[in-house]
Fold this sequence. Notes:
CATH superfamily of the largest domain: PK beta-barrel domain-like
Number of helices: 3
Largest sheet: 7 strands, mixed
CATH topology of the largest domain: M1 Pyruvate Kinase, Domain 3
Structural class: alpha+beta
Number of strands: 11
Number of domains: 2
Order of helices and strands: EEHEEEHEEEHEEE
Helix content: 10-25%
Radius of gyration: 18 Å
CATH class of the largest domain: Mainly Beta
Amino acid sequence: MVVVDPGGRVYPAGSGELDAALTEALGEPVRLVEVVEGREETYGSEWPEIPGTVLSDVEVDLPVAAITEKTSFVDASAVHIIVNQSMTHLASLLDGVKLGVERFRPNIVLDAHDNSGSGEFADLAWKDLVVKIGDVELRVGDPTPRCVMTTLAQPGYEQAKSVLQVLATAARKEFDYGAFACFGTNAEVVAAGTIQVGDTLITPD
Length: 205
C-alpha cells in the first residue's frame, strides 16, 4: 500500500518518509501503524460546551471501535449511515452554514424516494433493525453521538460551531449513559457483500 500526497509524491505505507511527511503536514508527531486485531486503542475526542449533554467542554480519550470488533480504526461502529432528508432538515435549522456529507463522514448516504421524514430527523428513532442494501445485511443500532469534528473547517467548508449547537437542541438523544447531540445512525455488518450506488434499502415487512 502507498500514500500519495496532494503534490503527487508517493510514500510506502509504514515508511519513515511517510511518517515525517505526515508530521510536517499536521504539525505534530504522527505515525501510520497497522491495526492489531483486538488491541485496545484510544483517540482524543474534543467536546465543546453543549448544555444538556453528558460531555460538555471536555477533552477525553475514547476507545477506538467502541461498539464493534476491534479490527480497524473506527470511532464507534463498523458502518455509519446518514439520510439526505435529515441533512435537508438540519440545513433548514442553520443560518447560512454550508453542509455536506464530508462534515459527518458516513459510509452510506440514503435518499428516501417518497420524501418521508422531511421536516424532521428521519433516522433519529431507528434502532435494532436488520436491513438489506444490495447483498449486504446490516443491523442498525442507535443514533450516532457527534463531537467537535462536525464543526471544524475543511476544504470547501468553514468552521461552524452552530452545527453541533443545533443538534444538541433539535437532535439530542437520551441513552442509558446520558444525553448526546446525534446525527446519523450506527450499524454493524450481519452478512458481508457489495453495495452499489442506486441500491435500495429493504426493511423487514
